[in-house]
Design goal:
- This protein is an alpha+beta fold and 145 residues long.
- The protein folds into 2 domains: 104 residues, no CATH class; 40 residues, no CATH class.
- Helices cover 34% and strands 16% of the residues.
- The chain has a 3-stranded antiparallel beta sheet with strand order 4-3-5. A two-stranded antiparallel ribbon has the order 1-2.
- The protein is globular and about 50 Å long.
- Bound molecules: zinc ion.
- The site of zinc ion has 7 residues, from strand 4.
Length: 145
């Protein structure tokens, strides 16, 4: 069992990252500098050479991390003016929100391993868009599947 928001599964080797200090978040850009292919990996040892951006995992945690993540999708009231209104450099929102949940929502990382379970998918078919990602539901997913 992973310690929530303290341990992660490396997207390269599949083993546990046991401390935020050992992790990096990496991603790529398209030709318009829009971000996609977000991954959490062991720093250095599991870093693929083709990823131009890498930032220590710790930068994405807590309220400081939430602030950082939000800066990817909006420049906010101070900076989002003129041509920078609705400026966003995320290309793949599903990937980005997956990353957001991995570093901000307790039990998401552990439950995420079960997200392809057919019985789970069947159970969640009629659930709201919010329901599956609530902390208590994620805990139930870990216990049940
Ligand atoms: Zn690794």
């Amino acid at each position: 069992m992973l310690k929530p928001l303290q341990e992660w599964i490396c997207d390269t080797c599949g083993k546990t990252i046991t401390s935020a200090d050992d992790g990096y978040v990496i991603w790529r850009h398209d030709i318009d500098q829009r971000d996609f292919d977000f991954k959490i990996i062991h720093k250095f040892v599991c870093e693929p050479p083709s990823f131009p951006s890498s930032v220590p995992l710790g930068e994405f945690l807590g309220s400081k991390g939430s602030t950082y993540l939000l800066s990817f999708i909006s420049l906010g009231k101070i900076k989002a003016r003129g041509r920078y209104r609705n400026y966003c450099h995320v290309l793949d929102f599903d990937e980005f929100v997956d990353l957001y949940r991995r570093v901000q929502i307790p039990y998401y990382e552990e439950a995420r391993k079960k997200f392809n379970n057919p019985a789970l998918l069947a159970e969640m078919e009629d659930a709201s868009e919010l329901h599956p990602y609530q902390e208590d539901v994620l805990k139930q997913i870990i216990e049940k599947y």
